[in-house]
TrEMBL record:
This is Small ribosomal subunit protein bS21. One of its GO terms (cellular component) is ribonucleoprotein complex. Keywords: Ribonucleoprotein, Ribosomal protein. Belongs to the bacterial ribosomal protein bS21 family. The keyword Transmembrane helix does not apply. HAMAP family: Ribosomal_bS21 (MF_00358). One of its GO terms (molecular function) is structural constituent of ribosome. Pfam families: Ribosomal_S21. It comes from Niabella drilacis (strain DSM 25811 / CCM 8410 / CCUG 62505 / LMG 26954 / E90). GO terms for biological process: translation.
Length: 65
């Protein structure tokens, strides 16, 4: 549960902005979406490897954006 400390003179918009930022940093929504569907560990590791290869190719200049 996220708790936001708000001062009495603080605007509700500022408190809501703090809450949204804290919620985003906690990555709760990402975890929820990740848990909706099971992905096999082999598929996860393959995706990570492909992502790393792609990043390496960009860094070496083989792929231009």
């Amino acid at each position: 549960m996220l708790i936001i400390d708000s001062k009495d003179c603080e605007n509700i918009d500022k408190a809501l902005k703090k809450y949204k930022k804290k919620f985003e940093k906690s990555k709760t929504l990402l975890q929820l979406r990740e848990r909706q569907h099971f992905t096999k560990p082999s598929v996860k590791s393959r995706g990570q490897r492909l992502k790393a290869i792609y990043k390496q190719q960009i860094a070496s200049g083989k792929i231009e954006l």
